[in-house]
Amino acid sequence: MQSKEILEQLKDEISEIEYEHYLKQLQYIEEMSSSSHAVFSAPNILIANWVRTKYMQRIAHLFELRNGNTTTIEIILATQKKSPPKQKNVKRTSILDFTCTFENFVVGGSNRMAHNAASNVAKHQAKFNPLLIYGGTGLGKTHLLNAIGNYVSHNKSVNYVTSEQFLNDFVHHLRNKTMDRFKEKYRSNDYLLIDDIQFFASKGKDMLQEEFFHTFEELHNNRKQIVMTSDKHPKYIDKLDERLKSRFLSGLVCEILQPELETKIRIIKNICQRDRIFLTNDVIEFIATNINNNIREIGGNILQLNVAANIIGQDITLEFARQQLKEHIVEESTNITLERIIDTVALDFNIKPSEISSKSKRKKIVLSRRIVIYLARLLTPNSMPSIAQGLGMKDHSSVSKAYKAIETEIKTNKDFKLKLEELQSKIRLKN
Ligand code: ADP
Ligand code: MG
Question: Which of 33, 183, 189, 404 might form a disulfide with 157, Cβ 3.0–4.6 angstroms?
């Protein structure tokens, strides 16, 4: 059998212990596989995770070599194998990533609120409805969405989809004139989890937005939980229907921020533990400080480091890590400009750069303006008058007041001090 041969082929590439412990434990599930999709079951989550992170790409490649077409690989838990639903009414219309749970989500200042909100709606349906989690790439949005799904899926019906899948499905059913089936699929679950809703908004997607609006209304009226993620605050999603915008904002909106260094270190330790990779503290700190904040990329880098170390047969020393990851190190920037500071602070506060140099008295904007002033003094050679000019302020006495206000705040507020250090390092790093 082809799948068996493929696993055996891998036997020659890895150590015997690894083969015996991991690959040999996999079982090919014919009835769930097709010519372009191979499904294996693993006896436990550890083995499933190990295979997923270490061998999945290689297995897919070997399939491709044999069949000549791209093959996706899926590793499921043996318990998920055709197990009949425990409750009659429970429908599972979607595939959840079972490796993303609340237990293995590292909570820190940057994601605490989003995590709390997610775990609350998992425990109490429609407690906050809708819940919308937004933030940058690789910061854990999809993880939390799946964690909710996994938590509730034993007794509730869950539908997890990306907005692209929703779109494709919509087009498909529209073409086939089976919209009643589409409606049934999306309006009948206790939990509708929609990932990356920013894709709903673009030119020519009016019908889709209209359909989603009605889906939303019906679910909401029936106290079904809707959870969405987005890469930005709905307010800043261009071309998003105003009605949808106001619906999205009517529940709870939480941001996942860029992780603080300390949280990043704990996430890296968590990844190492999950993938059974040993890294010394200095290597962990090196990765946390020098690679960007995208956890997905950090995970990939750690894996790459481990594979390289295994192949060469050497320990992962700081020097080795530096050498191996040199392409991924975000270098220090030498020419820091006021614009760069404004852009970084605006992004962090989720406001438009132009708002910082506006006359707005909104608390958030005033604070971000003061921070920009402080950082500009610290990181650029600009004088007070030139900073005032750059920010469209009339006189530089207000610049100096702002600087002092931040200075005082830093002395008394430890969290604030940390926040500013973090902003500084973002500004100092290129990209
Ligand atoms: P996003 O959807 O925000 O782009 P993901 O949820 O896909 O990001 O996260 C990227 C990767 O990082 C996933 O493998 C996820 O499990 C992991 N990850 C992100 N945040 C955390 C965290 N706080 N704790 C543990 N793993 C995390
Ligand atoms: Mg995602």
Answer: 189
What predicted TM-score, i.e. pTM, was given to this entire model?
A: 0.65
User: Is there a single domain that holds both residue 37 and residue 169?
Assistant: no
Q: Are residues 186 and 282 in the same domain?
A: no
Ligand nearest to the CA of 294: 1
Range in 242-246, 399-403, 417-421 the model is least confident about: 417-421
Cα three-residue angle 316-317-319, rounded to 5 degrees: 125
| CA separation for the pair 167, 199 (Å, rounded) | 9
Q: Which residues, at least 6 apart from 346, have a Cβ–Cβ distance to it below 8 Å?
A: 352, 353, 355, 356, 368
Q: Is the CB of 401 under 6 A from ligand 1?
A: no
Same domain, 44 and 189: no
Last-in-domain residue among 204, 228, 258: 258
Q: Ligand 1, atom 11: nearest CA belongs to which residue?
A: 296
CATH number at residue 46: 3.30.300.180
pLDDT, tens digit, 9 for 90 and up, residues 241-271: 999 999 999 999 999 998 988 999 999 999 9
- Cα-Cα-Cα-Cα torsion 230, 170, 129, 145, nearest 10 degrees, comes to -50
